[in-house]
Amino acid sequence: MKKLNKELNNLYQYEEALEDSGVKYIAGVDEVGRGPLAGPVVVAAVIMPINLRIKGIDDSKKLSEKKRNELYKIILKEAVAVNISFIDEKTVDEINIYEATKKGMLEAIEGLSVKPEHVLIDAMPLHELKIPHTSIIHGDALSASIGAASIVAKVTRDEFMNKMDIKYPHYGFAKHKGYCTKEHLEMLEKYGPCEIHRRSFAPVSKHFTKQIQMDLFENEEDS
Question: Which residue from 8, 72, 105, 169 puts its CA 20 to 30 A from 214's CA?
């Protein structure tokens, strides 16, 4: 029990320091989906009630799907405010993944129904944000607020990719969620990219380069 309490205290150290200084509304912000070859970047901003302590919150990647879903329901039920931003693959291709992540974080924060007094962010510096904020490396494992946002973003994106698996059944999106797995690469090679693949990401980009070369060759043949 002492070990569990110590872990809980460590997870809430940033929140408690802010609460002690009189801050009531603390938003945690995190993204999921920077690395995949397909699908959106999903960012969640979450404000949890002060003094609420939820056991089990952690970096969403460390949790089982069952545990994530359980915590997701608790977070949505207890949260003061939650907002989710989707940045689609076309935007990722247009402005790059770093800027897309930043855009999603700013949108998620600005769209909260309750304005936060301080924002805890996983790693990404947000110099454009006018609200007081702290960027924490590995924040999803060090701050309960960021961990909660990580869980909400992960469950939301996984549900979206499960729907994409029904729409584009050849790629196995329900299994790998668009990440660069061996199965995904094999299906990409066999069927080529679909609409939700990120054209600017290797190895997706080579398929479009190949298509451009074929089109140029055909145009030369016709001329």
Answer: 169
